[in-house]
Write a structure and sequence with these properties.
By secondary structure, the chain is an alpha/beta fold. The chain has helices at 11-14, 28-40, 53-59, 90-98, 110-130, 139-150; strands spanning 2-6, 46-49, 66-68, 133-137, 167-173, 176-184. The protein has a 6-stranded mixed beta sheet with strand order 3-2-4-1-5-6. Helix 5 (110-130) packs across helix 6 (139-150). The longest helix is centred in the middle third of the chain and has 21 residues, at 110-130. The protein starts with a strand and ends with a strand.
């Protein structure tokens, strides 16, 4: 099984900021969320993490060696990183949500995230078919991984909300990936 774990809370998440490549640590609440998650998830055979500190801190609770994979890093928000969502105009938000080809200037497009995450998912599939693979990542890569599992493209990203410390489960079957859980345990 492939368990897609969003890192625990950071101070920036708590403020509702767009948090991409900025690298704040987990907040005390985020550390508690990570510790609690380690208590109810099955023991991991493999743990993979984004290179960002908040993901690596969350991955550390699983008590296994952690492989850092750059492909699981969060979207690059460029000049908007760690800033409030209202830094983008209402018009930009509306167009971004409706026009799959549009991304505001300076922000990594969904197609880039999809390519890197799809490749990472394909590589992990064989292991996840017979063992527990935990990937600790961020909102955008997790949404892309779920789209990969569902075999869809498009605006799925705007129709999902991934909670801090939320866990989604994808089983790898002979017939392909199957999403079994979405956002379990998130607070």
């Amino acid at each position: 099984m492939l368990l897609l774990v969003r890192h625990g809370e950071t101070a920036s998440n708590a403020r509702g900021h767009l948090l991409g490549r900025a690298d704040p640590p987990l907040s005390p609440t985020g550390q508690r969320q990570a510790d609690a998650m380690a208590m109810w998830l099955p023991p991991a055979d493999v743990v993979v993490s984004s290179p960002l500190m908040r993901a690596r801190q969350t991955a550390a609770v699983f008590g296994r060696p952690v492989t850092v994979d750059e492909r699981w890093i969060e979207r690059d928000y460029g000049p908007y990183d760690d800033g409030p969502p209202d830094a983008l105009s209402d018009e930009e938000w509306a167009r971004w949500r409706c026009d799959e080809a549009f991304t505001p200037d300076g922000i990594e497009p969904e197609s880039s995230i999809r390519r890197r995450v799809n490749a990472a998912c394909e590589e992990l599939s064989a292991q996840a078919a017979s063992s527990v693979v935990i990937v600790v990542s961020h909102v955008s890569p997790i949404k892309s991984a779920l789209a990969w599992a569902l075999g869809i493209t498009g605006t799925l990203a705007w129709r999902l909300f991934v909670e801090d410390a939320g866990v989604s489960r994808v089983d790898i079957t002979d017939d392909g990936p199957v999403v079994r859980w979405f956002n379990r345990g998130g607070l």
